[in-house]
Structure formats: C-alpha cells, structure tokens
Amino acid sequence: xxxxxxxxxxxxxxxHLPDGRVRMRxxxxxxxxxxxxxxxxxxxxxxxxxxxxxxxxNTLSYNxxxxxxxxxxxSLTELCYKHLEYDCNSDIKICDKDDKKKDLLKPKAIDxxxxxxxxQISVYEIGKRKVNSITSNMVKNHIEYLVxxxxxxxxxxxxxxxxxxxxxxxxxxxxxxSNNPCTAMIKKTKKTLxxxxxRNSSDGVVHILSxxxxxxxxxxxxxxxxxxxxxxxxxxxxxxxxxxxMRVGExxxxxxxxxxxxxxxxxxxxxxxxxxxxxxxxxxxFDKKTEYKPGEGPVKNDKARTIxxxxxxxxxLMMINKxxxxxxxxxxIVINKNLNxxxxxxxxxxxxxxxxKVGFGPEITGAHILRRTFATxxxxxxxxxxxxxxxxxxxTDTVKKxxxxxxxxxxxGDKIINVVDMDD
Length: 424
Description:
There is one protein chain. The chain is α+β, with helices and mostly antiparallel strands. Helices cover about 50% and strands about 15% of the residues. It has helices spanning about 45-65, 70-75, 75-90, 105-120, 125-130, 135-150, 155-175, 185-200, 210-220, 230-245, 250, 280-285, 310-325, 345-360, 370-380, 385-390, 395-405; strands spanning about 5, 15, 20-30, 35-45, 95, 100, 205-210, 260, 265-270, 270-275, 295, 305-310, 410, 415. Strands 1-2-3-4 form a 4-stranded antiparallel beta sheet. The two termini are about 45 Å apart.
C-alpha cells in the first residue's frame, strides 16, 4: 500500500511505493495555459528524489528565463540541441495536454538524435536559419532535397522531420514561440515517405533463408574449427538467433544465469549496446569528441520475457556451454577472443563473413534476416501474430510489417512465398 508524506511549507510530498521506491511531487510555476505545473520524480530514496527535483527545477528555471525573443534569435540547429539537452537533463517531461510523462532518453536514442542533428540538419542551409524565419515550404523542400540528393534511408529522412517537428513542439510547450512550420506539411510528407519506403524496398521484395540455405548454414557452423572456441561460439550464436528470433543486443546481454536448462527456457530481460552517451553529463556536451563505450539496459520496448526453447536452441546452448572457458552463472554466454562479452556493433561484420564463406549471395546480409526467417517460418507453421510478437519481444504491427512483410513478396531462396493474413 502506498504511504504518502507531506513536506513542510508546501515543499511537495513523498509517496512510498510498494516496490520500495519513493515518488516525490512538487508544484513549480505554471504552464502557458495557466495550469499549475506539478513536477514528479521517482528514485530509491527521499534524498535521491530531492536531488532529482532540484535538477529538474534548475532546468525549468533555465528554460523559463529564456525569453521568447531570445529563442527566436537562435538557429534551427541550436533549437534542436536545446531540445535534446532538455530531454537529457529532465527526469520526467510533461509532453502533452494530458500531462503524460516520459522517462529520460536512453543512450542509444541520444546518439541517434545527435547524429541526425549533426548530419541531416546542421550542415544544410535550413540548420543555419533563425527559428522564426523557417516556413513550412522550407522544411518540405529540405526533406525533398534529402530524398533526391542523398543516399539516406527513408527512415533516416523521416527521423530528420521528426526531430525538427519535436523541437518546435517543445518550444511551443515551453511558451517560447507560437508557430510550428511542420504542422501544415508533416502528415502529407510522411505519407509520401511511407510510399517511397515501400517502393524502394528492393521493389517490394524481402529475403529470408530458404530451407536449403538453413541446412548449409548449420552444416558450415557445426564444422567450424573447435580449436578456436570463441570463433565456434560466434558461429553457434548465429544459430541461436535463428532458432529464437532474438535481437543481437539481447543475445549479447545473456548470462548463464538466464538459461534454465531443466525447463528448457531462457530469460531475456536486458540488452547490450555500444553508445557515445553513457551518462547524462556526457549526453549534452555536443562538441565533445565521442568516446564509444559498451553498456546494458532494458530490452527494446520494455518487452522482457521468458521463452520456451526449441530442442535445437537448447542443443546450441549446451554446445556453447561445453566449449566455453567461462561458464559461471554471472559469465556472459557469447564472448569474444578476449573472453569479454560480445558487442552488437561488431556482430554484423562477423555474421556477414560467415554468410560469405557459406556461399550466400549479397541479398543475405545482417542478423535481422535470421529474426525475419524465424518469424516467417513460425507463421507458416500456423502460429498467430500475437504469439510470434510475444516470443520475439515486439508488437504485432511491427512483426506484420517488418518480419513477416505481409504486404510484400517474401523470397525464400529462389522461391516467392506470399504470406497472406486471413484477418485482413
């Protein structure tokens, strides 16, 4: 049961939650619409909550002291960075009229947004223009220029539009400006980008491994040199991805304590990544030379899960356990030649080398093809979208669009598999 304690002199209140954490609420100023601004932070103790609240108030005070005219004088690039700094430095942000709350950005998300600002906004004319001088046509023309004159993926171009739009929305919510040039064009432009993505996706064709290719991959990996354990572990981990549909980051974060051999199940509750923004302090020092470091966090979309393993997946884990020099419960399952945990950033290169040695063509690339193969094969066996999504830790819409590709032709070797969703 929650226990609430009020502080003296209107300095807010603490709520002790059933899980042992503490939530603090405090009124601070007003929103542009005249409503009281209620700040909420959560941590493991009252002392830590007080520190978070102080940092939050300092950030808001900084924002409140920046007048409307000062914000209008800065460039679009500076506005995007100020918005990112706010997101990095605020424990919880109020992001819409319903006072929905949003946690701090994860390090990888910070990296992606910094990259978007640096490479798709700041180096172009639109990034140098003043905030109040940018029109809807300028934003539209910039997006169209990226489509015509760069090799960026459609998703990267859409991310550029999202970053610009979010920065303006934030500035309006803070009361700095009153107009968002993206409002009039964003829906139509996104619809155009979605059509372009479908058309450019290899003419609507995606690839999965054929049964013959799966057999070739299995035979090659199972014959790998047993004198070099870390190489064999790398190969076996490819089959583990194929037999479970896991993400690479989720697999790299697995420890032996996550495998319950007796029940043939695996606990997937974290992901491993490499990021240049491992602390809040580093995140908004935008001119600092980036030093990339490994880290761990919750799985994507918070889809932690325990999965029942197939006999094939269990056999792979037993083989890795037998050859690995590190098998204590706290040790990582997938390790590199230095006996350290493997990182997703290097995995794509290594897996493509294996594909090349097996003799696969250029259409077979990356680890996602294993996830896509797993999902498609399970669907063709009669498993529902919901069960597949739950097993691989994703939403049914994402599974349908990106892993089963029900709106495109699926190539399994030289055969076309048209998977039809009977619910549509």
